[in-house]
Amino acid sequence: MTAVDGPARSGPAGRPALVPFPVVDEVTRHCLRAEEPETIHIEIRLPGRPDPARLRRAFTAALRHHPRAQVRQAPGPWYRRRYFWELTEGPDPGVDVVTVAEPEPGALERARERCLASAPPLAASPPVRLELVEDPERPGGTALFLTVNHTALDGPASLRVLATAAELYGGRADVPAAPPVRTAPGVPAPGAPGSSPWAPSARVARGAPSGPPGNGLLVADRAVPRRPPGAGYTVNDQLLVATALMIADWNREHGAPPRPIRITMPVDDRPRGADMPIGNGTRLVEVPFTVAELAAGGRAAAQHDPVGLGELLRRTADRTRALTSVPRPQLGAAAVLLTAPVVPVVWRAAVTRGLRRAAEPWTSTTLLSNIGRVPYALDFGDAGRADAVWFSAPARMPRGLNVTAASTAGRLHLALRWSKALLDREDGARLRELFERYLDAMENATTGNGGATEGGPG
Length: 458
Known about the structure:
Layout: E1 17-20, H1 23-30, E2 39-46, H2 52-65, E3 71-73, E4 84-87, E5 98-100, H3 107-117, E6 128-134, E7 142-149, H4 155-170, E8 215-223, H5 235-253, E9 261-267, E10 283-289, H6 291-302, H7 306-324, H8 333-338, H9 345-358, E11 366-373, E12 388-392, E13 401-408, E14 411-419, H10 425-448
Parallel strand pairs: 5-6, 9-11, 11-13
Antiparallel strand pairs: 1-4, 2-7, 2-12, 3-4, 6-7, 8-14, 9-10, 13-14
């Protein structure tokens, strides 16, 4: 039994099997807000064009290969103690899981907007939609947009379903790369010196809210950051530092007082093969940065100081290695207690929403989700292999800003997603500029000025 699969409860003859909502699904379900749809967006680029009919057959077959992706929320009385997923044999009547967009100018941007604007309903199976869009930026090329209701699945699970569809479409087996091996640390996970979990985190300073409610998104494509041989940090550590310095700089530009920054980082330890547990299977850790560290890191970046940046990167690497190697419940022990089925689920929902509002000052500043090197070939046969993969997670308030990353073919694919209650598109462009500036500063300082850092393999 895993946190994402759980035991199935067989229904009467002819009725779907039932799977109780795991902790993450229930907490997410409690906190849904119509004005901020809980969607996962995955966007891949292909050099060719898949045949729509074959793509539809391959994707619906992939859903059958992963039954936990083919679910709907079961109805029930108000006094029920749990929510349940119904496992279905196929898409519900009237649900078209694969659509083809009309070729027209701005088709890619509108497809992204659709991914953010509306989540597939939980009452209809499956809670995913795939859209085929011609790529006007590359003659003959196409993009696939997968929109997922995050209450049911997370990004890595959705990518696994898409990889299975590619295998079935292209007829080629895909042996995924193994997930990272995490060894238990010999010492407790180090925090930032002088940091306290009870100190309120910095919030992303308000820019120009653009309303109506919802999320905005910008993507970027660049080379994967280089590191010197023997660097004691990873690309993920570079992304964490760039995210923290980006927000510190943005807040300083907007007159916000300096505060510690905490970044929530999903960690995925699931196997990546066809037997990967599908659902919401990542656990969350929080990586802290103190005001002093951020100020020193900003100065070091401005001065192209390899020593200062290397020190911040090494400290960040020590924290992330220790934090990710410590087993813990996905949302912490408190969430496990909060979702225990001892009272009606609607009562627990009210308590969960109230506690979430009360805990907002201590909510982390932002979320960085990094899949890393995409572990699948995503080979669609005559349509070619994916040469770009973007994904993004919901950017709900009070955080209001998420950074997501994936890499393939030596390229880093970044997405900044924000709440329109906090920022507008120009604000997003400025944040993306700051983020890339700090990535460049780290790369230039450590590779261009002889600043190789010492330490274990990155």
